[in-house]
Design brief:
Length: 83
């Protein structure tokens, strides 16, 4: 009984991740995603968001020192496009 509840919680969380992560949500209709794929897409998405947020923070800091912030933002847009 305890094991079934644990598996149900895992599956419910994976379904929620599938719904929240854009790449997983888009791929959902074409084929059933494996749990490992959902987790990998989540890691990739969070890494992209983290990098984007980090560059935006640098951009805000750099704008007071010149136009370097725009270059950082362009780099983020070129490198982390979610398809």
């Amino acid at each position: 009984m305890i094991e079934k509840r644990r598996r149900d919680r895992i599956n419910n969380s994976l379904n929620e991740l599938r719904r929240l992560v854009p790449a997983a949500f888009e791929k959902q209709g074409s084929a059933k995603l494996e749990k490992a794929e959902i987790l990998q897409m989540t890691v990739d998405h969070l890494t992209m968001l983290h990098a984007k947020g980090k560059c935006q923070t640098e951009r805000q800091t750099d704008t007071s020192h010149g136009s370097k912030g725009l270059t950082n933002q362009q780099h983020v847009n070129d490198e982390f496009i979610v398809s």
